[in-house]
Amino acid sequence: MQNNRTGPGAVSRRRFLQSTGAAAAAFTIVPRRVLGGPGYTAPSDTVNVAIIGAGGQGIQNLRELLEQPDVRIPAVCDVAETVDYSRFYYGGAGGRLPAIELVERRQAGRNSGEGAFRCAGYADFRRMLDREKALDAVLVATPDHTHAVAVMAAIRSGKHVYCEKPLAHSVWEVRRITEEAAAAGVATQMGNQGHSGEGIRLTVEWLAAGAIGTVREVHSWATGFDPLPGRTGCPRDLPPVPAGMDWDLWIGPAPYRPYHPAYAPFNWRDWWDFGTDIIGDMGCHNMDPAFWALDLGAPESAHARIVPGDPEMTPYASTVHYKFPARGERPAIRMTWYSMLMPPRPEEFEPGRDLIGDGNGILFVGDRGKILCGGWGGSPRLIPETRMRDFERPPRTLTRSMGHHRDWIEACKGGPAASSNFQVAGPVTEAVLLGAAAIRSGKYLDWDSANMRVTNCSDADPFIRPEYRNGWTL
């Protein structure tokens, strides 16, 4: 980590030695947190993290990082100065000015003697990475279509990276940033927070212990999303770009189109040029337990059924059917993803019980029973409840998480890799985005993962590796 100032603890220690003598010092060990005062973190132990994307989810991540005593936020980047999120579930304001105000308020005086704290603001992440030489890491929480360009720029600057899900907008981008992160040796983490939870670990342990026998079928789903009103294609009116917003930077590598509030700040996920549909959003959460527990790897095929709408927009509803090949002694797996739909009600359910919950989940079907989990890798349950009551839980064998952001910070400081690092999250995201390509193409896709190509349908090629707008490159 960068150490570009002399910490107050260093001065205190010299004075301590001078006043007590070397002999006393030889028998006395004083922690740096004591020398610097309560809550003090030595500069050499501090991780300097910049935020790229201070919208709703970016602000949520920022708040999490501000809870870490050894994290410092010296810079924030967002293409908009201020964005009103009060109508959305995030609430409050986003953009770089509210983010800077939050950082400076929370970090002022954190270490004794520091006084006022100043956080720099940028509209262009490339300029930030070029100017902020003391950065150790970045957190990327932009819309999907700019994930890869921001992540790759950070990796090539030698920064550790946390990126919100999905890792990128296309399979090709995911593969590239996964490979470059490994080559660079940087600490990484994808923002599928359930991967650090207790529920997903219990699921993996129970399935490994044979709680429901051999699994050959999986169902996962997400519902409860409000589609963009109207959904009648690209708007034709041309309202002015909001003051303080750089629309060209917001568009980034995507094909250019004029500003409209139908695209930003919130509804971008409904447009294929910017988002990856519900599967790209929630698949990285709700399908994740299957990849970990069953060691799925890459699918060999994917095909989709949709409730169609405007081709530039994501569909009203869809299902994606995957085939995963056998892996060693593990059998082939069929997995079905449901967006705004639900799988059939399990026959083991008690009267009146249904797959409602929070509208997110995953169901494992084994030859000796079924396990149902909530969204984000939530707590597993054998069904029916009589099976759950009689279930003898196996021992806990997996390392427990200190917290999704905490694990990444520890990895940045040289600790173990975070559990959803890019080498783990990359294959999950590739499969999710192959499903998005199947939705967009409307074709059955035979997938050659090693060569990253669909072998039977060239129509899907632009969705596997999209072209970038002039001036942008990976």
List the helices and strands and how they pair.
Layout: H1 8-20, H2 22-26, H3 32-35, E1 47-52, H4 56-66, E2 71-77, E3 83-84, E4 93-94, H5 96-107, E5 120-122, H6 125-131, E6 137-140, H7 147-156, E7 160-163, H8 171-184, E8 188-190, H9 198-208, E9 215-222, H10 247-251, H11 277-286, H12 288-294, E10 301-307, E11 317-324, E12 333-339, E13 360-366, E14 369-374, E15 380-383, H13 385-390, H14 404-412, H15 422-441, E16 445-448, E17 453-454, H16 461-464
Parallel strand pairs: 1-2, 1-6, 2-5, 6-7, 7-8, 9-12
Antiparallel strand pairs: 3-4, 9-13, 10-11, 10-16, 11-12, 13-14, 14-15, 16-17
Helix pairs in contact: 4-5, 7-8, 8-15, 9-12, 11-15
CATH topology of the largest domain: Dihydrodipicolinate Reductase, domain 2
| Rounded mean pLDDT score | 90
Rough shape? globular
Roughly what fraction of the amino acids lie in strands?
15-25%
CATH architecture of the largest domain: 2-Layer Sandwich
Number of helices: 16
**Level of helix content?**
25-40%
**CATH top level label of the largest domain:** Alpha Beta
SS class: alpha/beta
**What Rg is obtained from the alpha carbons, in whole angstroms?**
24 Å
Care to count the β-strands? 17
Order of strands, widest sheet: 15-14-13-9-12-11-10-16-17
The end-to-end distance, rounded to whole angstroms, is: 27 Å
Poorly predicted regions are: 1-40
The major beta sheet can be summarized as:
9 strands, mixed
Number of domains: 2
**CATH homologous superfamily identity of the largest domain:** Dihydrodipicolinate Reductase, domain 2
